Amino acid sequence: MTDCIFCKIINNELPSRKIYEDEDIVAFLDLTQVTPGHTLVVPKKHVADIFDYDEELAATVFSRIPKIARAIKRSNPEIAGMNVMSNNGTIAYQSVFHSHIHLLPRYTARDDFSIHFGDHSDKYTAEELDAIVASIKNEMEE
Predict the structure, then answer these.
(1) Residues taking part in catalysis
(2) Looking at the chain, which runs of residues are DSSP E strands?
(3) Which of 18, 23, 97, 134 is deepest in the core (most CB within 10 A)?
(4) What is the pTM of this model?
Protein backbone atom coordinates (compact mmCIF):
# COMPACT_ATOMS: atom_id res chain seq x y z
CA MET A 1 0.00 0.00 0.00
CA THR A 2 1.60 3.24 -1.12
CA ASP A 3 0.33 5.66 1.51
CA CYS A 4 0.72 3.39 4.55
CA ILE A 5 3.27 4.72 7.03
CA PHE A 6 4.14 1.21 8.25
CA CYS A 7 4.59 -0.08 4.69
CA LYS A 8 6.98 2.83 4.14
CA ILE A 9 8.92 1.87 7.27
CA ILE A 10 9.01 -1.77 6.13
CA ASN A 11 10.33 -0.66 2.72
CA ASN A 12 12.94 1.63 4.33
CA GLU A 13 11.28 4.69 2.80
CA LEU A 14 10.89 6.23 6.26
CA PRO A 15 13.34 6.04 9.15
CA SER A 16 12.58 3.97 12.23
CA ARG A 17 14.36 2.51 15.20
CA LYS A 18 14.12 -1.17 14.36
CA ILE A 19 14.87 -3.64 17.10
CA TYR A 20 14.07 -6.82 15.13
CA GLU A 21 13.39 -7.82 11.56
CA ASP A 22 13.00 -11.05 9.67
CA GLU A 23 11.35 -12.07 6.41
CA ASP A 24 7.83 -11.73 7.87
CA ILE A 25 7.79 -9.02 10.53
CA VAL A 26 9.52 -5.89 11.70
CA ALA A 27 9.59 -4.53 15.26
CA PHE A 28 10.47 -0.92 15.95
CA LEU A 29 10.13 1.64 18.70
CA ASP A 30 6.82 3.50 18.69
CA LEU A 31 7.41 7.21 18.19
CA THR A 32 5.11 7.99 21.12
CA GLN A 33 7.15 5.97 23.66
CA VAL A 34 4.28 5.80 26.15
CA THR A 35 6.88 4.11 28.33
CA PRO A 36 10.56 3.56 27.46
CA GLY A 37 10.86 0.57 25.15
CA HIS A 38 7.31 0.83 23.73
CA THR A 39 7.61 -1.30 20.60
CA LEU A 40 5.37 -2.09 17.64
CA VAL A 41 5.44 -5.51 16.00
CA VAL A 42 4.20 -5.25 12.42
CA PRO A 43 3.65 -7.92 9.77
CA LYS A 44 5.38 -7.07 6.51
CA LYS A 45 2.27 -8.21 4.66
CA HIS A 46 -0.18 -5.31 4.67
CA VAL A 47 -3.30 -6.28 6.57
CA ALA A 48 -5.54 -3.62 8.07
CA ASP A 49 -6.32 -5.34 11.36
CA ILE A 50 -6.71 -8.67 13.16
CA PHE A 51 -9.82 -9.43 11.13
CA ASP A 52 -7.67 -9.68 7.97
CA TYR A 53 -5.26 -12.30 9.37
CA ASP A 54 -5.34 -15.86 8.13
CA GLU A 55 -4.11 -18.64 10.42
CA GLU A 56 -0.65 -18.73 8.85
CA LEU A 57 -0.05 -15.00 9.25
CA ALA A 58 -1.36 -15.08 12.81
CA ALA A 59 0.95 -17.98 13.71
CA THR A 60 3.89 -16.21 12.12
CA VAL A 61 3.35 -12.83 13.75
CA PHE A 62 2.28 -13.98 17.19
CA SER A 63 5.07 -16.55 17.43
CA ARG A 64 7.59 -13.67 17.44
CA ILE A 65 5.96 -11.77 20.32
CA PRO A 66 7.52 -13.68 23.26
CA LYS A 67 11.06 -13.43 21.83
CA ILE A 68 10.79 -9.68 21.32
CA ALA A 69 9.02 -9.12 24.66
CA ARG A 70 11.73 -11.05 26.54
CA ALA A 71 14.46 -8.99 24.86
CA ILE A 72 12.72 -5.76 25.82
CA LYS A 73 12.30 -6.94 29.42
CA ARG A 74 15.93 -8.07 29.68
CA SER A 75 17.09 -4.71 28.27
CA ASN A 76 16.01 -2.83 31.39
CA PRO A 77 15.94 -4.35 34.89
CA GLU A 78 13.33 -1.77 35.93
CA ILE A 79 10.68 -3.31 33.65
CA ALA A 80 8.24 -5.06 35.96
CA GLY A 81 5.66 -6.20 33.40
CA MET A 82 4.33 -5.59 29.92
CA ASN A 83 1.03 -4.94 28.19
CA VAL A 84 0.62 -6.72 24.86
CA MET A 85 -2.21 -5.17 22.91
CA SER A 86 -3.65 -4.57 19.49
CA ASN A 87 -6.25 -1.94 18.66
CA ASN A 88 -8.55 -3.01 15.83
CA GLY A 89 -10.87 -0.47 14.25
CA THR A 90 -11.39 3.20 14.91
CA ILE A 91 -13.71 2.51 17.86
CA ALA A 92 -10.84 0.56 19.48
CA TYR A 93 -8.41 3.48 19.00
CA GLN A 94 -6.61 2.09 15.96
CA SER A 95 -4.95 5.06 14.26
CA VAL A 96 -2.71 3.35 11.69
CA PHE A 97 -4.60 0.86 9.56
CA HIS A 98 -1.78 -1.61 9.11
CA SER A 99 -2.07 -4.23 11.82
CA HIS A 100 0.39 -3.86 14.67
CA ILE A 101 0.88 -5.20 18.16
CA HIS A 102 2.02 -2.88 20.94
CA LEU A 103 4.56 -4.19 23.45
CA LEU A 104 4.31 -1.67 26.26
CA PRO A 105 6.81 -2.11 29.10
CA ARG A 106 5.44 -1.31 32.53
CA TYR A 107 7.67 0.08 35.23
CA THR A 108 5.35 1.19 38.02
CA ALA A 109 1.65 1.59 38.68
CA ARG A 110 2.21 5.28 38.00
CA ASP A 111 3.25 4.85 34.35
CA ASP A 112 1.45 7.28 32.05
CA PHE A 113 -0.78 4.48 30.77
CA SER A 114 -3.70 2.61 32.21
CA ILE A 115 -6.31 0.11 31.21
CA HIS A 116 -9.30 -0.22 33.43
CA PHE A 117 -11.86 -2.92 32.90
CA GLY A 118 -14.94 -2.20 34.92
CA ASP A 119 -16.87 -5.09 36.45
CA HIS A 120 -20.11 -5.37 34.52
CA SER A 121 -20.91 -8.92 35.61
CA ASP A 122 -24.09 -7.82 37.34
CA LYS A 123 -25.51 -6.47 34.07
CA TYR A 124 -25.96 -9.85 32.37
CA THR A 125 -28.18 -12.77 33.25
CA ALA A 126 -27.03 -16.33 32.74
CA GLU A 127 -29.40 -16.54 29.78
CA GLU A 128 -27.90 -13.44 28.17
CA LEU A 129 -24.38 -14.81 28.60
CA ASP A 130 -25.48 -18.16 27.12
CA ALA A 131 -26.97 -16.31 24.13
CA ILE A 132 -23.69 -14.45 23.57
CA VAL A 133 -21.76 -17.75 23.68
CA ALA A 134 -24.18 -19.42 21.26
CA SER A 135 -24.00 -16.49 18.84
CA ILE A 136 -20.20 -16.52 18.80
CA LYS A 137 -19.97 -20.31 18.50
CA ASN A 138 -22.39 -20.15 15.57
CA GLU A 139 -19.93 -17.91 13.74
CA MET A 140 -16.77 -19.96 14.42
CA GLU A 141 -15.06 -21.04 11.22
CA GLU A 142 -14.03 -24.65 10.86
Answers:
(1) 100
(2) 18-21, 25-29, 39-43, 81-85, 101-106
(3) 97
(4) 0.91
